[in-house]
Task: structure prediction
Amino acid sequence: MEQKRFAIIGFPLKHSFSPFIHNRAFHDLKLNSRYEKIEITPQNFEKDILSLKKSSLAGFNVTIPFKEKILPFVDSLSAEAQKIGAVNTIKAVEGRWHGFNTDWLGFLKPIEREAEHIKSCLLLGAGGGARGVLFALLQFPAIQTILIANRTKQRADELKEGIGFNKSTQITTISLEELVALAKPFDLIVNTTSVGMTGHQADSLINPEHFAHSNTIVYDLVYNPLKTVLLQQAETLGLKTINGLPMLIYQAEAAFKIWTGLSYPSQTIQFLLDELPRKIS
Result:
């Protein structure tokens, strides 16, 4: 039986852990498949995507900066991807590309036990990563208020309008500059920006002390480093913290399930949770 090919497309991909994650699952499930990196530069995007459509790829992941740019090349979209307005997973069937978004599922998994108690959220950032997170937040059963804070308020407004109307949840927007003057506690604080990532380690958009109560959860989508300045500040305050590593693994598992119909074995997830921190540090 011919080996199935899967990949990740994006730019740059030097630090992507997706091949390590998916190839481990293929190995553990004894599937004749492999997963590779296909780096596409923004200036060659259209030409390379059209040639990719003629390739033998069975499926691929889409990462920064192409999650929205890929949309015109997709033949169909899942309901979630349509609502979120971004795609991170493509399944190829007889030359047709079917687009999905698993980012929101990856975000939800590490926090689903606490979700029923979360009524308010401060969402930092309004880029591609924030789209899936906002969609996931709107699935929380008790969520009442979401404040989107972004460098430019206009981008936050666009995110709010783009996600559609939810009459039971109040979504408001604010610029990061205005946020500084606001001292208000939230049940959940989520950073969806790259601030705190390797290269920006010394930075944090906010001091969580001004926006937290004793049970606030602080969730940072950054996973390299594993403890951003934001998470370090939160831990000093005795708050529960979540980094972006579980989200990375669970969004990958959801994509894997779309392609193969199979979930990751529990030993695969445990291996990744143990091994990835060593690769990052």
Notes: The two ends are 39 Å apart (CA to CA). The mean pLDDT is 93. The chain has two domains: 4-101+246-280, 105-243. The longest helix spans residues 245-260.
